[in-house]
Amino acid sequence: MAPPAELQHQLLAKNKHHSSTIYVHQPRAGEEEREVGQVLGCRPLSVAALTMHITQLNRECLLHLFSFLDKDSRRNLARTCPQLQDVFEDPALWPLLHFRSLTELKKDNFLLSPALRSLSICWHSSRVQVCSIEDWLKSAFQRSICSRHESLVNDFLLQVCDRCPNLASVTLSGCGHVTDDCLARLLRCCPRLRELRLENCARVTNRTLVAAAAHGRALQTLHVDFCRNVSAAGLRRLRAACPRLALRAEHSAAMIPDQPPRGVPAPGSALRKLLPR
To answer: Which of 24, 148, 162, 176 could form a disulfide with 202 if both were Cys (CB 3.0 to 4.6 A apart)?
Structure first.
């Protein structure tokens, strides 16, 4: 007979290894029957009788176990049997998604569903610096680097727009290629979005601010830090249109915009001298 739910929770809490078999910690000699009997509230059982396969846990326990694993570990465990695959595909397991690199967006180790509430894509690497260079200053080699991942975040966010209408929080950091059009669609398709935090997103302009005022009905917080193509005038207009919006724009409006100064031709050494170090 399978142990009751209370015992399953205790067994799960005692086993930290990702094994397909759950083992009870061996108590001191002469105490195992008393301890097990106290847990079950019935006649004593031997410790050996409590060895169980992971699939004997109920769904609540399995979801709890999966919640402690990272995305790769969840996927690897799910591949061991159809029952665990079914747990992996349960939307309740995926209310939060955090990505630390753009390559993670291309993996199949997560699920997008209406249960998603919080999304974070924080990319920090040497390639972020290349993406942050003004387009008119990039060399051909730098443009080739950017072209390999230029559409990754936009394409991913379009999937989020289609599958995650209940999204409440989005954080994008270092996503230099995310566009105003993509963010405007996100605001339209996710009417419950309360927090939008953008940092070092070079292509974000005043058009995103206009979209926030027009479509961000539930929006309470908007950060556009280090977004150099956002202007002070655009920020003033948004503050006037949405006075209750918690708006932050650190090091944004005063930065050099992503366009060549007037009267300056193609990039060169003379132009670089004009830029502050």
So the answer is: 176
3-class SS at 252? Answer: coil
How many helices (H) and strands (E) in the chain? 12, 8
Would strands 246-248 and 118-122 be described as parallel, antiparallel, or unpaired? unpaired
- List the chain residues with pLDDT less than 50: 1-2, 7, 11-19, 21-27, 30-42, 45, 47-48, 264-277
Residue 41, strand partner residues? none
Cα–Cα distance, 55 to 22 (Å, whole number): 10
Taking the CA atoms of residue 196, residue 197, residue 201 and residue 206 in that order, the dihedral angle to the nearest 10 degrees is 50
Query: Nearest CA to 172 among 200, 206, 150?
Result: 200
pLDDT in tens, 31-75: 444 443 444 444 554 544 557 788 889 999 999 999 999 999 999
Specify whether the CB–CB gap between 196 and 170 falls below 8 A.
Answer: yes
| Sequence-ordered list of residues with C-beta below 8 angstroms from that of 10, at least 6 positions apart, any chain | 39
